[in-house]
Amino acid sequence: MQADRFVVCGAGGHAKVVVATIEAAGGQVVRVLDDDPAVHGRRVLGHLVEGPITEDLVPTGSLVVLAIGSARGRMVVASRLRAAFGAVIHPGAAVHASVLIGPGSVVFAGAVIQPEARVGQHVIVNTGASVDHDCVLGDFVHVAPGVHLAGDVRLEIGAFMGIGSCALPGSRIGAWATVGAGGVVLGEIPPGVTAIGVPARVVGTGRP
Description:
Blueprint: E1 5-9, H1 13-24, E2 28-33, E3 43-44, E4 47-50, E5 63-66, H2 71-80, E6 88-89, E7 94-95, E8 100-101, E9 106-107, E10 112-113, E11 118-119, E12 124-125, E13 130-131, E14 136-137, E15 142-143, E16 148-149, E17 154-155, E18 160-161, E19 166-167, E20 172-173, E21 178-179, E22 184-185, E23 188-189, E24 193-196, E25 201-205
Parallel strand pairs: 1-2, 1-5, 2-4, 6-9, 7-10, 8-11, 9-12, 10-13, 11-14, 12-15, 13-16, 14-17, 15-18, 16-19, 17-20, 18-21, 19-22, 20-23, 21-24
Antiparallel strand pairs: 3-4, 24-25
């Protein structure tokens, strides 16, 4: 990681944490890109924001990480870039050596990922979250701050666990489903829905 050079795509609040994580891990942020002209010329932790997000602005030999909180937003940008994506793990996170982490994923400070867990591409394991043994996080999943996943939990593509939520052993959260803040998953959440409460119950459709 110490020799890695990163291009950060996205310039919002999430980008601040991504930049801080890269630098804490010994990496170098060489460019921050965003598609919104309104933010061009601003700075993210001292780094000038340029744009738009194109391959032409990715220096040769750099890795790309998507600092975009929206799962669908990350998916759209990832699909249009032919670039090498890099995973970023904060040195203050505890990740077991047996864990597989896909390209483009970020693991923030205080997170814990236990043995034999698998983390897909462009996943966010946010501040202070815990992912226990044998969990599987699909591509573009977001595990918000303070989430706790017990052993053998599976989150399908694009699933979102809101801040402080948790899932009991063996739970399944379907593709693009949302579990609201503080929700407790006891079993299965269907794809594309929003579930809240203790236990988490479906209240509507998921995020657009």
